[in-house]
Amino acid sequence: MSEARHPDSMKEVSRRVEQIAQENARLFQELAAGEYRIRRLAKAIWAVQEEERKRIAGELHDGLGQNLTALKIQLDLLVQEAQKVDSGLAPKLSEALGFAERALEEARELSHLLRPRILDDLGLEPALRWMGRTLSERTGIDIQVSCPGLEDRLDPDLETVIFRVVQEALTNAVKHSGIGNKGSLQVEVSRRGAWVHLSVEDQGAGFDSSLVLARGKIPNGSGLANIRDRVEVSGGKLSIRSVPGKGTRIEARLPLESETPPGPVGG
Ligand SMILES: Nc1ncnc2c1ncn2[C@@H]1O[C@H](COP(=O)(O)OP(=O)(O)OP(=O)(O)O)[C@@H](O)[C@H]1O
Ligand SMILES: [Mg+2]
Question: Each residue of 209-262: pLDDT tens digit?
């Protein structure tokens, strides 16, 4: 009797297996579509943030910056006049001129850090070289930037992500590696086939990177976790190699083309 039922139960089992496979495929598509929507949303939020930074950088540069320049010119003239009449006001006015000059420098630097115009106008390589040069002038650290195969402009969103990753990695190296002003940092951004690779390396203190990128376990700041998320949302991967006492190397690879939406759910 059990032999007689055998063919039917086999059919039933394979029908169920087929059903489960279809259900799995549907769930997988739904998941992919959900992930795609979340990634698009995260990208949109970052795009708004970058736009806002651009706007504030522009206001700082053109609004506050122009007014401070006008103030500086006026004070300069007043210093010259005061020196002519020997009223004793000249030293005070010179001091005020010094304050105006410093305020102007700070406004310009803040504006460039928020959103360097050079990134929009000239592209990634000039912007990275500018960042290396200014950071080097400020800290005394030797910063080498090399960009093989990066002659052409990339997608603006991709250029922005790469710039922000290098900015965070360089800031971290300056803040945490303890290399001091005699040390050096190496930045490389290269185009290889359909990918862009980047690395930022120091030979400083190093740290236990397993603690930093474990999700939900960020001991100190959030800079590295933020750039990890930003790289992943762009379809890339960030990795950290750090050996205490030997140094740190931050690497990322990002696709040149952004992802295409998954196929329709259902069917
Ligand atoms: N190049 C480095 N050398 C040594 N330690 C590092 C380096 N980069 C990061 N770290 C360690 O990893 C921690 C986490 O870095 P992360 O960028 O996430 O935060 P942060 O720099 O402390 O703060 P934030 O980026 O939010 O301003 C740092 O506090 C530091 O201890
Ligand atoms: Mg940081």
Answer: 777 666 655 556 789 999 999 999 999 999 999 999 999 999 999 999 876 777
Ligand 1 near 173 CB (within 6 A): yes
Sorted by sequence, the CB contacts under 8 Å of residue 262 that are 6+ apart come out as 29, 32, 33, 36
C-beta of residue 252 within 8 angstroms of C-beta of residue 188: no
DSSP conformation class of 62: I
Domain housing 43: 1-115
Among 113, 168, 172, say which to mutate for ligand 1: greatest number of ligand atoms within 8 Å of CB.
172
Specify if 267 maps to a domain: no
CATH of the domain at 124: 3.30.565.10
How many domains does the chain contain in total? 2
Express each pLDDT in 28-63 by its tens digit: 999 989 988 998 899 899 999 999 999 999 999 999
220 C-alpha to ligand 2 centroid (Å)? 9
